[in-house]
User: Which sequence fits this backbone?
């Protein structure tokens, strides 16, 4: 029988359910299981109700499941809030005082066991141990993972190992029967990663040397990862005073010759738009990660969405070429950010990488290897001309790309301005020059288009197609699998390189098939793009804009209703 | 040896005849030559406004950026390569208005750059609206009943933020100004030079004569430039007497010295090592 179990742990903010999730992920990894964990939390530091949902499987998992096998209630309201998600044969783990009336409940006094182990703070470890025991794994495996987790703190290690022991003892005493999974310690089948980490790693792989940012969920995690990597690789990360500073600092670094990164979310990105224009007109490479959350304004700070596609496409005044890339998975974040740096440098244009709370914060087992791209390394600037006085930073060229030297690195002077300018970088209001410069910048587009990855296709020969983009890849793909099992003739087309829009084979496929738009916004922004660029219309749409990860079940239901009816 | 001539180009100057900016331009050239810097060894980052145009009228590397954002761009350039000689040209509106937040935090950050604020107490380029330093009650096309807001005292702000080099210059004294710019460039850390600069077209109150009547060189006041309290008092003086010169100077470690990540040389020159990255990634799969 295939293994596919979901554990949901609910607790208050500050209670450390993150650690519970992290430890459980590590146990799964050590036993060769695939997993995917999503974080759902309110925008508060203490209290409230947060949960972490972990799906464990013996085959790769790309989406969270909606039905829960083991519900862990650490805050006394998890059962009430999520009880209806529990499968009939599911188990509940809760505190004694909050025991619901039903079979399959294990009440554990986490606090008491933790205190006995030596510290109330080990409650989470007790919970982990109880979960792992119920899932059928051996104590040894759990001990090893916990010991490794606390490897650098001997005192903590000891009491947490006692907590593990207490958790296991408690399950065996209860006589409650959990699951009979094969848990054997083995060579891990991949790396435990989340989108934030792969984005930061990808930036390092691309030779990024400077990070500047202003904290904003869900982008902060990316920069925090970058800070960790700065301990191992040449990198300086500066917390800017605001996003205006962050984006312009990054432009300054790029101008000076270092690859640099900033990451933000909607409101911060809105503040960065003017700076994006400065990079555009000075043809300075710029990479911005916009980790979307629902808006407008502060919106839902800790939740997810895909509401910024058109905004990103049009951000900043007037017209200039840009790339908009939307990675599909945690692993794809690594490739995409490397490409972002490469493309920004090659075409001297802004690149926005559109991710979202879901992708940045989802942890999973990445089994494929993260490969450092052969294009990843920053390239040395071209040789300055023999007569440095003849150098023109914005020389008119056929492909619109001019030789980019770095200031103070040769005798040639690098002059740039956010005003319209002549090829030598001085302000100019001349009519012909203006036209020439607009055309020069836009001349990059044909080659930029050729860089774009075609959409990801899955059963694209089917009568019906689901058309989606970015981080929803895993959920839509699972929906397609379920629908196909239900004998629907359906496939998917999933866009990852959003702009310039890769026309082929999209145009052909979408004009020859019936298709449904699947987006995490309320108006169908990808649909708008496809209509404008390709003149194609969907037969229907499935939108989710509640700030929660796209629900596979919803997609399946709505698609079936539309196709069936 | 670089010469003044090296810093001249034939790009058409667009300032009004008689503008105070000419004095600043002259002082800058002098200072750069005295610093033994050739144009290719200098990077100027400027904001938007009449002041922001300055680097176009000099021969140097430059980025003429956005209104208010010069310090941010300059800071980024320094993060990438802290060996760059960076001078920032900004206006009173550019620096204390639109870019006020960057001004505050650039002082706290203490990167080694020299900020020249062309303080004409008016928005010059946009034709005469009040700036953060415009005198109270001055009538403009927008402040038609006179300026109601109190003017900012930028040097006092800088001192309150712990700035290590705080000076005031006057465009009507290019020689002294040039010396201030040199001292600012010599200072290792963030240096602020607020420069009184008559705008002949839109500020008919704070004219060359108005400034000349009031300015007094701090060296004539037996001022101790290490005395923070005294400096603060001088920085708050305005209507009767306007102190010029270095009000405060104190050595302290700049950003680069304090930043643990920058101890192995400028980021620009750090090697790219694909092998190291691959090794790190390998570790994640173990
Ligand atoms: C975002 C933005 N807002 C407004 C402007 C218009 N603007 C250009 S310069 C300027 C003020 C210039 O005043 P100041 O900084 O004192 O420079 P000055 O011209 O006096 O040297 C303004 C408001 C702009 N260019 N960008
Ligand atoms: S408007 Fe004023 S500041 Fe601008 S150039 Fe003319 S005199 Fe100088
Ligand atoms: Mg001004």
Assistant:
């Amino acid at each position: 029988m295939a293994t596919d179990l979901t554990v949901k742990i609910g607790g208050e903010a500050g209670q450390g359910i993150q650690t519970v999730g992290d430890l459980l992920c590590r146990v799964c990894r050590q036993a060769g299981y695939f997993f995917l964990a999503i974080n759902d939390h309110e925008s508060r530091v203490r209290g409230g109700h947060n949960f972490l949902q972990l799906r464990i499987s013996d085959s790769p998992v790309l989406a969270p499941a909606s039905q829960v096998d083991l519900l862990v209630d650490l805050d006394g309201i998890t059962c009430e809030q999520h009880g209806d998600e529990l499968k009939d044969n599911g188990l509940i783990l809760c505190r004694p005082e909050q025991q619901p009336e039903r079979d399959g409940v294990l009440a554990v006094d986490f606090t008491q066991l933790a205190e006995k182990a030596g510290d109330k703070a080990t409650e989470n470890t007790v919970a982990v141990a109880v979960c792992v025991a119920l899932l059928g794994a051996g104590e040894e495996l759990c001990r090893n993972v916990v010991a490794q987790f606390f490897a650098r703190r001997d005192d903590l290690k000891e009491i947490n190992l006692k907590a593990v022991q207490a958790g296991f003892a408690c399950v065996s005493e209860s006589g409650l029967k959990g699951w009979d999974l094969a848990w054997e310690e083995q060579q891990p089948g991949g790396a435990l990663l989340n989108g934030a980490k792969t984005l930061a790693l990808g930036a390092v792989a691309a030779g990024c040397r400077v990070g500047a940012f202003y904290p904003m969920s869900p982008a902060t995690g990316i920069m925090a990862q970058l800070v960790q990597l700065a301990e191992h690789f040449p990198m300086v990360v500066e917390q800017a005073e605001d996003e205006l500073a962050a984006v312009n600092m990054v432009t300054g670094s790029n101008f000076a010759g270092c690859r640099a990164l900033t990451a933000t979310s909607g409101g911060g990105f809105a503040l960065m738009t003017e700076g994006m224009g400065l990079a555009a007109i000075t043809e300075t490479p710029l990479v911005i990660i916009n980790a979307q959350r629902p808006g407008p304004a502060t919106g839902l700070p800790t939740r997810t969405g895909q509401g910024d596609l058109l905004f990103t496409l049009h951000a900043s005044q007037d017209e200039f070429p840009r790339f908009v890339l939307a990675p599909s998975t945690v692993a794809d974040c690594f490739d995409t950010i490397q490409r972002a740096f490469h493309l920004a440098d090659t075409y001297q244009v802004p690149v926005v990488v559109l991710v979202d709370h879901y992708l940045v914060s989802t942890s999973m087992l990445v089994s494929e290897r993260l490969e450092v791209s052969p294009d990843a390394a920053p390239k040395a600037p071209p040789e300055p001309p023999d007569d440095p006085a003849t150098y023109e930073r914005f020389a008119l060229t056929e492909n619109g790309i001019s030789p980019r030297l770095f200031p103070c690195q040769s005798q040639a002077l690098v002059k740039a301005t956010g005003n319209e300018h002549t090829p030598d970088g001085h302000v100019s209001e001349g009519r012909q020059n203006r036209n020439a410069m607009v055309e020069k910048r836009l001349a990059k587009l044909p080659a930029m288009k050729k860089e774009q990855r075609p959409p990801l296709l899955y059963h694209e020969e089917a009568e019906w197609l689901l058309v989606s983009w970015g981080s929803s890849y895993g959920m839509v793909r699972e929906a397609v699998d379920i629908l196909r099992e239900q004998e629907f003739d359906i496939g998917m087309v999933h866009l990852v390189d959003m702009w310039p829009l890769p026309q082929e084979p999209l145009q052909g496929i979408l004009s020859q098939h019936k298709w449904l738009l699947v987006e995490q916004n309320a108006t169908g922004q990808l649909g708008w793009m496809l209509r404008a660029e390709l003149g194609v219309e969907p037969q229907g749409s499935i939108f989710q804009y509640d700030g929660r990860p796209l629900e596979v079940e919803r997609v399946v239901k709505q698609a079936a209703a539309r196709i069936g009816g | 040896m670089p010469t003044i001539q090296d810093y001249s180009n034939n790009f058409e100057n667009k300032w009004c005849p008689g503008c105070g900016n000419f004095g600043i331009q002259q002082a800058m050239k002098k200072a750069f030559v005295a610093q033994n810097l050739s144009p290719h060894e200098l990077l100027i980052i400027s904001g938007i406004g009449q002041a922001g145009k300055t680097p176009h009228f000099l021969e140097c590397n430059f980025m003429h950026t956005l209104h208010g954002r010069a310090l941010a761009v300059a800071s980024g350039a320094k993060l990438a390569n802290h060996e760059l000689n960076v001078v920032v040209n900004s206006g009173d509106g550019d620096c204390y208005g639109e870019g006020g937040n960057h001004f505050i935090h650039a002082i706290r950050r203490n990167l080694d750059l020299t900020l020249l604020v062309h303080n004409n107490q008016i928005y010059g380029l946009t034709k005469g609206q009040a700036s953060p330093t415009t005198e109270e009650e001055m009538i403009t096309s927008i402040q038609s009943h006179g300026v109601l807001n109190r003017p900012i005292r930028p040097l006092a702000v800088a001192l309150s933020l712990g700035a290590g080099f705080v000076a005031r210059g006057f465009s009507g004294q290019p020689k002294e100004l040039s010396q201030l710019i040199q001292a600012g460039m010599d200072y290792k850390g963030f240096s602020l030079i607020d420069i009184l600069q008559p705008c002949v077209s839109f500020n008919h109150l704070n004219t060359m004569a108005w400034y000349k009547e009031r300015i007094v060189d701090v060296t004539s006041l037996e001022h101790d430039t290490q005395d923070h309290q005294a400096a603060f008092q001088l920085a708050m003086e305005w209507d009767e007497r306007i102190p010029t010169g270095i009000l405060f100077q104190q050595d302290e470690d700049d950003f680069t010295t304090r930043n643990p990540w920058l101890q192995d040389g400028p980021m620009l020159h750090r090697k790219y090592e694909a092998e190291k990255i691959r090794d790190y990634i390998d570790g994640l799969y173990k």
Q: What stands out?
A: The pocket of magnesium ion (ligand 3) is lined by residues B 49, 91-93, 120, 122-124, 131 (CB under 6 Å).
